[in-house]
Amino acid sequence: MRLSEVAEALEAEVLLGDGLLETEVAAAGAADMVSDVLFFGRPGMLLLTGLTKASVVRAAQVADLSAIVFVRGKRPDEEAVELARDLGIPVLLTSHSLYDSCGRLYARGLPGVIPARQRESPGIQ
Amino acid sequence: MEPTPTDRFANRYPILGGGFFLAGRASGEVKRRLSELSLPKELLRRVVIATYEAEMNIVIHAVSGEVAISVEGDAIRVVAKDRGPGIADVQEAMKLGFSTASEKARSLGFGAGMGLTNMQRCADEFRIASEVDRGTCVEMTFRPRPVDSKEEQQDDGN
After folding, report:
1. Whether A82 contacts chain B with CB within 8 A
2. CA A15, CA A21: separation in Å to the nearest integer?
3. Is residue B4 part of a domain?
4. Tally of domains in chain B
5. Are residues B71 and B37 in contact, defined by beta-carbon separation less than 8 angstroms?
6. Which chain B residues touch A63 with a CB distance below 8 Å?
């Protein structure tokens, strides 16, 4: 699913990354804990979160994630926005809840990150 | 003179305990520097994730510390050393979910009690030594892995 389709499905505002909306997102995950992101995040994963701090942006950089969606109308801290801008990480804002946002993307065919054994192709890695 | 492999990259990053504002900067810099070495992506990723966990542990728990990175042949070594309270029971601290992180750290999304486990999972060699009221030292070595190896197998159990 392209990032533009993610934005559409979530009726999201694109805060950062207007030029990156053609990016293909293979899978998504949701977390409010940084270590969770580092633990199950996969390269290219879309992250949905309610954590609005710079730490979540740093985690996205460290784990090679593709973009961040802040849910439930939350706006990331100034510091978080600055860091995402510096690192070139797209940021989307949606008023939908975490649960609804995940549901909307899942219903449109965007899978969660898949444990290695169940994976058929190493595409997500 | 040809540089030896260890000359390719070696660097130390000082880290301030409680320095939440700067937190993650060292790991970001490590990622940027290591990216220039055309290492296998999965290797780079594990090194940077473990380095970030180690950096955050110092920020959250210690007075001060440093992370040192060196490339030795095809292996990467990360040593995170701090001056701080130390860990009374390392076995206990290694348990998934065990955390003594402050409210401040938790408000930033830390304190899941997964940091040490995650470092161990990412590294191919992991050693931790700690002394109460002195500090903690974590030594990690990373080597390229075939795809679908340790990291992902362990995911299935979690």
Report:
1. no
2. 12
3. no
4. 1
5. yes
6. 45, 49
Question: The domain containing residue B136 runs over which residues?
Answer: 9-156
Please give the biggest Cα pair distance in chain A.
Answer: 41
* Domain assignment of residue B28, yes or no: yes
CATH of the domain at B124: 3.30.565.10
- Taking 90 as the threshold, does the pLDDT of residue B1 lie above it? no
Residue of A nearest to B116 (CA): A35
Mean pLDDT, rounded, for B78-85: 97
E strand intervals along A17-106: 28-30, 46-49, 67-70, 91-93
Distance CA A87, CA B105 (A): 23
Decide if A123 touches B, using CB distance below 8 A.
no
A52 touches chain B (CB under 8 A): no
Give the pLDDT confidence score for residue B22 in this predicted structure: 85
pLDDT at A122: 42
Question: What does pLDDT average to over chain B?
Answer: 88
Nearest to B66 by CA among B79, B56, B47: B79
Does B155 sit within 8 Å of A115, measured CB to CB?
yes
ipTM above 0.90, yes or no: no
Within B67-149, residue ranges assigned H as helices are 90-93, 103-107, 115-122
Q: Which domains does chain A have, with CATH numbers?
A: 3-110 (3.40.1390.20)
- Which range (A99-108, B3-12, B60-69, B120-129) has the least confidence? B3-12
- What residue of B is the nearest CA neighbor of A121? B148
Please answer yes or no on whether B49 and A62 come within 8 Å at the CB atom. Answer: yes
